[in-house]
From TrEMBL:
A Pfam family: DUF1648
Entry superkingdom: Bacteria
Name by which UniProt lists this protein: Uncharacterized protein DUF1648
Transmembrane segments: 12-30, 53-72, 105-125, 137-155
InterPro entries, alphabetized: DUF1648
Keywords for this protein: Membrane, Transmembrane, Transmembrane helix
Domain DUF1648: 16-61
Length: 169
């Protein structure tokens, strides 16, 4: 078992568990109706019932994780010639390592998205709390974009600049 395998799975499952816990606590703490859009003065000017916010976030997370699982299963069934585009041909010799690398990479995507949604829920709860004075959460967009960019470039960089492990029989 590689460290990449361990981190991708643990982060994914911990992010799912943390998301569910934060979603339940957020639902409990949100006012009804919940402000989901804020004007220039920092006050809410667009509202949704808190149960719609709960089901919207839960549905997005659930659907996204299911779609990624389906994508992982589809990638594992691809024929060997589907990866001929990889410039580092050493990866094509051991198909199992290539599959494992791609599957680990795909498992990082829901972990990143679940973590980002968790941060958004936390910010939404803080913005709807009248006791919160810090209402600047614009850094969350930067964090989300940076995480997705890192995820996008991780696999191409790994396939270009590393070689698969040599397996001795």
């Amino acid at each position: 078992m590689s460290i990449e395998y361990f981190i991708s799975r643990v982060w994914r499952y911990l992010s799912i568990a943390a998301f569910v816990i934060v979603l339940l606590f957020t639902y409990r703490g949100l006012p009804d109706p919940t402000a989901v859009h804020f004007g220039e003065n920092g006050r809410g000017d667009g509202f949704l019932p808190k149960n719609e916010v709960f089901y919207l976030f839960g549905g997005i997370m659930f659907a996204f994780n299911i779609l990624v699982v389906l994508l992982i299963n589809s990638v594992q069934k691809l024929p060997a010639n589907a990866f001929q585009w990889i410039p580092n041909k050493k990866w094509l010799i051991d198909r199992k390592q290539l599959n494992d690398t791609v599957v680990n990479w795909l498992n990082f995507l829901p972990a990143v998205v679940n973590t980002f949604l968790l941060l958004i829920l936390r910010a939404l709860l803080a913005l709807n709390d009248e006791r919160t004075f810090n209402t600047d959460y614009t850094y969350l967009l930067v964090i989300g974009v940076a995480a997705i960019i890192i995820w996008i470039f991780y696999l191409p960089i790994k396939l270009l600049y590393t070689n698969p492990d040599v397996v001795e029989d």
